Amino acid sequence: MNPIKSWRSLMSKKSGLSDGGKSSFKIKQLPFMAFVLTVMLFIVYRTTMYQYQQEELDKKWNFWGESKAYSSSFGKLRGLPRGIIHANSDLELRPLWLRSGSRSKLSVYSNRNLLAVPVGIKQKQNVDAMVKKFLPENFTIILFHYDGNVNEWENLAWSSKAIHIVAQNQTKWWFAKRFLHPDIVSVYDYIFLWDEDLGVEHFSPSRYVRIVKEEGLEISQPALDPNSTEIHHRITIRARTKKFHRRVYERRGSTKCSEASEGPPCTGFVEGMAPVFSRSAWYCTWHLIQNDLVHGWGMDMKLGYCAQGDRTRNVGVVDREYVVHKGIQTLGGSGHDTTKVSKLKKTTTRQGIDVRSEIRRQSTWELEIFKERWNQAVADDKHWVDPFKGSGQRRKRRWHSVQRSS
Fold first, then answer.
1. Domain boundaries, the chain
2. 150 φ, ψ to 5°?
3. How far is the first Cα of the chain from the last one, in angstroms, to the nearest whole number?
4. Cα–Cα distance between 21 and 42 in angstroms, integer?
5. Does domain 113-401 have CATH number 3.90.550?
6. CA R_g for the chain
7. Model's pTM, two decimal places?
8. Cα(153)–Cα(121) distance, rounded to whole angstroms?
9. How far is residue 183 from each of residues 163, 211, 278, 283, 293, measured CA to CA in Å?
10. CB within 8 A of 10, min separation 6: which ones?
11. Which residues, in sequence order, are CB contacts of 274 under 8 Å at separation 6+?
12. Could you tell me where the Low complexity compositional bias lies (predicted)?
């Protein structure tokens, strides 16, 4: 036998075995790679589903319909599972205990509204009449006691059903900024933030709510009886033949209002004494309230920006349900020029300081500060566009063309 041929034959067999081994190894790798790929696809699927579920949870929890930035706050809550977190609260009183048969029943609040009023003991009788109107009609009542006197309210039958908050010599807007945070009042359809000196003999809360819902009024107020002691703006006076109105027409005085008028105080305006806010409008308004400007002067002219759209449509005064503004001054007095003005006695301290005059000066100063802050904010925010700037010019042009044609 030729030794060279035998050697070549042997090498050829070895080479064949070697190639077969490599092919066999590759075939064995395929199931492993398929398994790894399946695991990776499963991980991607689970991650995507988790992100989707978190987005759905955010939408579900977000009662206000706004996109909330959980990125910064969620880090502080990483120790908790998401399902246990309650982002909102309410102002509903809870019993200390329940009967065993009632413990499993969850409280569901629907069509519920909130009345919040700053009160002093001198207005006890008027506030009593007001609360008796609201409490039976599915309203939660919260009273802000600015004079520190709570005990003398306890003899009223409804006192234990209301929430009482005490802070000496604080204003309505101070209380609202601190105790009516949107996350606290998100269960309420409408927030009534009223003064204490309003007569409600001709007012029905349930009928009022029905009207604002039907007409789509995000911000509103009841009209004022023409015989009210104080009337600051003509648009708030009751029109006897109307259900509600959104604008006023005035050709006399310094402020002339016509169909061409696009903003306050001719249209898109309510006054600070008796505003009513929808849930969404209050979310915006709460952020408009300046924490350190407690008298709220100037805000009424800007509330239309919180009307969730066209302020000439979404802001209105309800005539069918109206109130009487009694103009009783118990926390410093009014600094507005009024159509009808009561004669007010001065309130002085032992040091001879006229308290009402000082508060009027403070309110006037805060008004100027608020105007400056608004103008500065507009100048600084390059992305903000005034939603009413262009529409006003177009409305004026249409009105002038109608006038010429007629």
1. 34-63, 113-401
2. -115, -35
3. 127
4. 33
5. yes
6. 33
7. 0.76
8. 8
9. 17, 26, 14, 9, 22
10. none
11. 192, 194, 195, 198, 221, 222, 323, 325
12. 9-21
